Amino acid sequence: MVNQSMDKAGESYGISVIVPTYNKVELLKRTIDSLLKQTLAAECYEIIVVDDGSNDSTGEAVKQYQAVHSNIKYLYTPDDGFRVSRARNIGIAAAAKEILLLLDSGILAGSRLLETHLIKHYEKFDSVIVGLSHGVEEVALSASDTIVELLQQQTVDKALDIMTDIPEVQDCRYDYFKMRNFDIAGFPIPWIIFWAGHVSLRRRAADRLNGFDEWFTSWGGEDVEFGYRLHQAGHEFVMLDQVLSIHYPHHKNTPHKTSSSSDNLKYMIDKHRDRWMTKLLTGSWMSVCESALAETEKHIG
């Protein structure tokens, strides 16, 4: 367990887990169930569900959890369309702990996830932590049957152990960064992999930058844009060297998301005038990473 005496800033010790959701009650319940089975003591973390206007049974389901667990908050905002940036900002404003963990509905947490993030934040005090999740791809999901069947038979922790040896379910960033021992300290553009389904940072860092840009009202880019500002502000990015979460398969409107992401990227380019963002218009995140690394190594050489 983490020693609470490590609190250096006089803030409320622990982690606020912010989970935005919209009409995904069954996925949300899986996420909450996994978060209630942590090695971290319950008083050291809270779960903040920010409901972006659901019209299913999300509210009723969360209230049932609240009747038993005092560390769960439920915040509802009217359905004004896709407002995940606003939802995350609402969660940030309500957070009572010093560390924020941003987690998507449908991400299942291994039992050591919160404790691991907390330890990392005391090793690297003002860092941004990027976590990988089995089953994550950029816009599509492969091997979904394998993941579903495995989770029907095993606990999340056991499934995580087994998935380590199943290449087709790995996070699409896994192999690339495994070759680099998950060390991104010298990575020139770490914001490119700041995908908010599983990342953590100090609340003060989010507050200083006024959180997520609420211009984003369609899927894609709002997390990378926030990551870009965090990097520009001087925060060191750290990647967890172990996979402690699973993205549970669910339907994705891939053509719509691809179009939406392109429009949002153009907004980001206009806002920041960053040449590496511009390269994302025609290249994958991996190809842009390779170009940035090659240029950095050339300058060092």
Automatic annotation (TrEMBL):
Residue span(s) of domain Glycosyltransferase 2-like: 16-112
Superkingdom: Bacteria
Alphabetized SUPFAM superfamilies for the sequence: Nucleotide-diphospho-sugar transferases (SSF53448)
MF GO annotations: transferase activity
Keyword Transferase included in the entry's annotation: yes
Keywords carried by this UniProt record: Transferase
Every Galactosyltransferase C-terminal domain range: 183-245
Protein name as annotated: Glycosyltransferase
